[in-house]
């Protein structure tokens, strides 16, 4: 199984937008994105310039967005 690399929250949001998600709103330090079909909502924590931890990134990519690690890495 391929690995996820640590990324900044801005890069995660950019990759999700390339995958067909659009930013709906921001509440505090969390950005919410919705899939174009409206069925999936993804929450990305934006805590300064810190990288998103691997476990959190895996949760965002696989569980919330429904993408495989390969699909996310290729975006």
Automatic annotation (TrEMBL):
Keywords: Endonuclease, Hydrolase, Nuclease, RNA-binding, Stress response, Toxin-antitoxin system. Belongs to the HicA mRNA interferase family. The keyword Metal-binding does not apply. This is Toxin HicA. The keyword Hydrolase applies. One of its GO terms (molecular function) is endonuclease activity. It comes from the Bacteria.
